[in-house]
């Protein structure tokens, strides 16, 4: 009976590990934290890897505490800005690539980031 009990516990543990792994497949596990221009701190817990996500209030400082890289955009559509109209007034469209466990603060004259997407996510 002891052997069966250990086998049962191992099987249950394996199922649990697979279930947890399945749940994290569509989320960037961890926290994205940003500060709005009004200095309000906002935390986003385990955002979806799919699609474009808004940054309500805009972001002047962003910390990526997830296991995935993200890309920050100066508009709400997660698209590059038009050439000659980027967020710092320089020539060329842009977005900001923010690696995992990294942070970034805006530069003077830059508009706040208004959206982000998870790199490698769908859509």
Structure description:
The protein is α+β, with helices and mostly antiparallel strands and 123 residues long. The protein is 18% helix and 34% strand. The protein contains 1 helix and 8 strands, in the order H-E-E-E-E-E-E-E-E. It has one helix at 2-23, and strands at residues 30-35, 41-45, 52-59, 61-66, 70-73, 96-98, 102-105, 113-118. The strands form 2 sheets. The protein has a 4-stranded antiparallel sheet, with no helix packed on it. The protein has a 4-stranded antiparallel sheet with strand order 3-8-5-6, with no helix packed on it. A hairpin with a 5-residue loop joins strand 1 (30-35) and strand 2. The relative contact order is 0.21.
- What structural category do the secondary elements indicate? alpha+beta
Strand arrangement, major sheet: 2-1-4-7
Q: Outline the biggest β-sheet.
A: 4 strands, antiparallel
Helical content class: 10-25%
What is the string of SSEs from the N terminus onward? HEEEEEEEE
Structure summary, number of beta strands: 8
Strand content of the residues, in percent? 25-35%
Distance between the termini: 51 Å
Task: Average the pLDDT over all residues and give the rounded result.
Answer: 77
Parts with pLDDT < 50 across at least 5 consecutive residues? 11-24
Number of helices: 1
Radius of gyration: 19 Å
Structural shape: globular
Secondary-structure map:
Layout: H1 2-23, E1 30-35, E2 41-45, E3 52-59, E4 61-66, E5 70-73, E6 96-98, E7 102-105, E8 113-118
Antiparallel strand pairs: 1-2, 1-4, 3-8, 4-7, 5-6, 5-8
